[in-house]
Design brief:
This protein is of the alpha/beta class. The protein has helices at 3-10, 15-23, 28-43, 82-94, 112-124, 138-147, 161-167, 173-185, 203-216, 242-255, 265-270, 274-279, 295-298, 312-325, 338-353, and strands at 46-56, 99-104, 128-132, 151-153, 189-196, 220-225, 285-286, 329-330. Strands 1, 2, 3, 4, 5, 6, 7 and 8 form an 8-stranded parallel β-sheet that branches. The structure holds iron/sulfur cluster (SF4).
């Protein structure tokens, strides 16, 4: 039996096989087809739409690949008021979003109590809340959870410690891991992921990322292609690894059939049909931006971000139309991953059996 057929049955591949699939084109068609079939079998045909609210581009970190890095003085920084955040969230809920993803650079411009108020207010509007705020203390993660936050996204970016160290000045790989463990222990539906196509990133390193995701039992995995940003130390790097990012997406689906996988906006930046292609290769989530006005362009992690001149309302109907044209539906639930739902059921059965 070939490698892809075997993985489709066992959801297991060793490092050597992963590297071989990433290296060679000869598995591509079988890989993408298998990922699409497994996606349909385990998480269905419907696509979860989650509204991405990029509420501040202020960041104290200096990640080499990121346009929001503190050392980039060429971008105008912004910080939405609590009222603006709630107004954008409310409109997004009116457009049909069930999940609001609150994302910002890593900073303390919003005190923990303020974030908790924002989270509680959005929950009171009836939406599920996903956070993507970077590394915080355990006390902060706990406070957000108690305020009602449901999910947390924190990409590991790369599991290659040396590469991680070289790209993240004054950050620690161990702390990143600790944050992920803490989030899982606190009961968050936890997401991670990788940046693909970084300078010095080997195929073995990418295979190790996949094995890390499998071992860690995450609920969501986001794969983004590296796109070199102006005014960053990697401005002259190659980037643009669309095919490799697509293969990583498909391999995540093979290894972790029940997780949620977003078709990332960065994929659409590299290919005008990038999100649809990712949705046909294992992905089942899209996160359109729901921030309004100039903020859409100012949250510039990388150049060429799509849909910056559209309104959230236009984006909502545009992406829905594309999904329906693909023969897929828009999910009506709150967007929990099948992996998370299954784990909650396992825990309930365990407690019932031991009551
Ligand atoms: S990747 Fe995140 S933490 Fe790093 S500079 Fe960009 S916004 Fe800040």
């Amino acid at each position: 039996m070939d490698k892809i057929a075997q993985a489709a049955m066992t959801h297991d591949l060793d490092r050597e096989a992963l590297v071989e699939i990433l290296r060679s084109d000869r598995y591509d068609e079988a890989l993408f087809n298998a990922a699409d079939q497994i996606r349909e079998r385990y998480v269905g045909n419907d696509v979860h739409l989650k509204g991405l609210l990029e509420f501040s581009n202020i960041c104290t970190r200096t990640c080499y690949y990121c346009g929001l890095r503190a050392a980039n003085r060429s971008i105008k920084r912004y910080q939405l008021s609590v009222e603006e955040i709630l107004e954008f969230a409310k409109k997004a809920i009116e457009y049909g979003y069930k999940t609001i993803v609150l994302q910002s650079g890593e900073s303390n411009v919003y005190a923990c109590e303020t974030m908790c108020d924002i989270i509680a207010s959005i929950r009171a509007l009836g939406a599920t809340v996903t956070l993507s705020l970077g590394e915080k203390s355990e006390a902060e993660y706990r406070a957000y959870k108690e305020a009602g936050a449901n999910r947390y996204l924190l990409r590991i970016e790369t599991t290659d410690r040396e590469l991680y160290r070289s790209l993240h000045p004054r950050m620690s790989f161990e702390n990143r891991l600790n944050c992920l463990h803490t989030l899982q222990a606190l009961g968050y539906e936890t997401g991670s992921g990788s940046l693909v196509g970084l300078p010095q990133q080997s195929l073995t390193s990418l295979a190790n990322d996949l094995l890390f995701f499998k071992r860690s039992d995450f609920d969501m995995i986001g794969i983004g292609p590296f796109i070199p940003g102006e005014n960053t130390p990697l401005a002259q790097a190659k980037g643009g690894a669309f095919k490799t990012a697509l293969k990583m997406t498909a391999l995540v689906r093979l290894l972790l059939p029940k997780v949620n996988i977003p078709a990332t906006t960065a994929m659409e930046t590299l290919n005008p049909d990038g999100r649809a292609i990712a949705l046909r290769s294992g992905a089942n989530v899209v996160m359109p931006v729901i921030t309004e006005g100039e903020y859409r362009a100012l949250y510039r992690l990388y150049p060429g971000k799509v849909c910056i001149d559209d309104t959230p309302k236009q984006c909502r109907w545009c992406i829905s139309g594309k999904i329906i044209a693909m023969g897929r539906g828009i999910a009506s639930g709150n967007g929990d991953s099948e992996r998370f739902i299954a784990r909650q059921e396992e825990q309930r059965s365990f407690y019932d059996a031991n009551a």
